[in-house]
Every structure is written in C-alpha cells, then in structure tokens.
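Re: weekly structure request thread

Next one in the queue (477 aa):
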Amino acid sequence: MPDTDLCFLSAIDAADAIRRRTVSPIELTQAALERIDRLNPHYHAYLTVCHDKALAAAREAEEAFARGDSLGPLHGVPTSIKDLLYVKDVRATGGSLAFAEHVADRDTPLVSRLRQAGAIFLGKTNTPEFGVIPTTENRLGDACRNPWDVSRTTGGSSGGAGAAAAASLGHLHIGSDGGGSIRIPASLCGVFGIKPTNGRVPPYTREWGGFGGWPTLSQAGPLSRTVEDAALILDVIAGPEPGDPFALPAPEASFRPRPLERLNLRVAWSPDLGWARVDREVRDLCEAAARRFADLGCEVEEAAPEMDQGTILSAFAAIAGAEDAAAHSEVFERQPDLLAGYTRRFLEQGAKIPATQYIRATWQRAAVWRAYDEFLSRYDLLLTPALATTAFPIGQPPPAIDGTPVPAFAWTPFTMICNLTGQPAASVPCGFTAAGLPVGLHVIARAFRERTILEASRAYERARGELPRPPEPATKA
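Done, posted below.
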C-alpha cells in the first residue's frame, strides 16, 4: 500500500491491518512522520514532532507483535496529543513562551492509558496559551491554519488536533474541551470531536501532569475523521483515576456504536436556542442535517430549553476566569512579559473575581444544569449548529453575524453550555458552504449518554456518506 494511502486509513482499519500483518507499525509511523514533515510547515498543527521517539516506539511495537505479546487496542496506531497534556520526556509548552523549553517528567494519566493501549505518540499539537481562547495563536510561532483554507482559523483551543485530523497527520488525536475546545475545531476543520461527560476521563490539571486551568469545566477527548475512531479512543481513556474525587465510575459497556441503520430517538432541533445569531448558510445546512434524522427513524421537532444567554455567559465567565487565575497565578506573577496579551488580560480579570461571585456563578450553573437536564429528560438528543459561522480569516472574527453586529466570541454561542452542565456533546460534519468551508452539527445528550451520541452520529455519518479531503498545498511553505 502506498505511504500516502496508509495515512488515510481509519484508526480501526490501521489497527486491523497491523494485526493481519498487511502493514507494520514502522510503516504506519514513517508514513505519518513524512506527511507531517511535508505539510506541517503549512498548517502548524504540531508544536513538537517526536521523530526518534515515535520510530523507536514503532520498532518496539513490531517486536512485541513478533514475540506474540498481548496487544492493546491501539497497538502501533500513530496518535497526537494536545500540548496541554504531558507526555514523559517530551517538550510540554502549554502553548506558552514561558514553557518553551519545558520537558515533562511524567505522563498525564490519560496519556499513560494510551501508551498502555499501544499508541505511538507522534508529537504535541498546537494550542493557544493554556487553552484560554477559542482560536489557536500563541507566541511560539505562526498561527495554526485550517487545511481547507490556510488563510483561515482552525478554531481552538484544540486547533492543532483539528488541523491534524483533517489533514491526516496521524490517525488519532487527543484534544481537550473547557468551553468547546474540541467541538469548535471539529466543526471548523470538518472532523468529528466529542466532549465526554464531565468526570468521564482523567483530569489534566497541574497536579495530574498538564496545563488544564478549568478543572470543573474541562474534559479531554478525541478528534478523528470517523465516529468509530473516536469511540475507540474513549474505550481506552474513559474510567476513574485513583485519587480523582470527581471521577465517574467505569463505563458499563464499550462506547463502540452499534451499526444501526435506523434510530428510534426523540430529537429536539433548535437553530438558535431562541437567542443566538447564526449565519444563514450554517443554519440551513444544520437544519437539513437535523431533518435527516427523521429519515433515520427519529421523531424530530423544533424545541429548546428555556434558559437566557445572560445566565450562561455570566456563570461561565466567572468560573473560567477564577479557576484559570488560580491555576496560572505563579507564572503570571513570575514571568508576565512572556505571556500573550490575551492570557494576561484573562488572568488579570480572573484574579479580580471575588469568592462570593464565584459561588453565585456555581448557583447559576446549577440553574443551567436543571434547565437542560429537565429538557433532555423529554428528548434523547438536542441538535443545534456547533457554531454560528464557518472558519474566518485568522485574527479577524466576524463583526456581524446574519447582518447583525455582534460582540467578540459571539460566533461560538452554543458550546460552553455543555461545559457548565457537564453533558456530553459532539460536533459531526454535516456539509460545506458554497465557499467550500465545513460546518458541524452539535449533538447533545443527557449526562452519561455518550453512546447515544456516538450511535446517532454514526448513523448520520453513514447516511451522509464520505466527505472529500482538504486540498493539499501546491507550493512550499
């Protein structure tokens, strides 16, 4: 099989090919590294590429197979890790110039699970500093660029993982999501991404080996080209970690979706939740996708939870700001000049949030949780657009949406809700605009029901059909 074709295998097919001995972990890893070397200068998806370590691990994987060792589910599969999570003996920057030369002394627990499952680590993917904004720019180098149009953003904060998944720079990709940071780049880059239920996977805050600053909002999770590949990762990374007081019990069954041709679900569709501004073309593509669920056997009706935008925004801002200020106070006090302007502003504002405001925000958060949980007690899924727009030029968020002037970050009105409520949510690609930019459908379920999302997304994915690949750059970077 040509090396280029190896890069386009799904993770499940790659793992199967290794077991059937039609391809070796060394061949897969070499192909992935060669593709990264060729395309990463255009996309800046990776901050660090682990050539020697990846090839050494691939050789060990090949030797383990030859010895007849027991193989993990990801044995020999090339995988990337967002640079907010530690990989032992690999540079860990958190997207920050202050940590440009920092080398991790341990694995984040989630990374340990991937390693035990046999994954080959290709490198660390790009992120904004400490993951605090929903686009991927930092002071370490050029902005992360969207494979569908390199002048446009990937979103963030898992923008490097989104770009790597879209451009087939590896087979599996780990991101993290504190306010939509998996689902935003998944939507803008045309791949699948899921935020698990809060507590489903191990944390990646400083004490656990990472730069995560929003411990009550954030979850790590997968971005991948297919729904089944994302489920494969969840099977490996889900489950409690000893010492984590917020961990959920181990899943009772695999997350792998059954190959359902028809669904029997009650589905709510809302184009705007009653208050968001959404680009007309995005809205139309998402509505067509939502209506497609009726063809899959679902009962689909337009409905939305009763919750105003102000409560959601004020609760999120106070919780995220205070938690991030606490997490990164040391570097803010010691090396403020090395931090990006957006980081300094965010940490300064967060440090001013009093404990009383933070506690009131947790009460608001509980009100949002109750509203969404009650709503989803009547529906199996809530569908919305993942975002209000498609990928915009880097550094130029839209000043208006659907003809109406909007404030900053109004292009991402939907995703942070599920970080407040802790519900699982995913973005599944649902089409392209006339300009050729991908659009994602937001798929939300009640807590603990990732498998419902995965089965519904897989059924939709099959009905939608295979998507085109991004065009490859024609000239050298």
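The chain is about 40% helix and 15% strand. The mean pLDDT is 96.
Next request, please.
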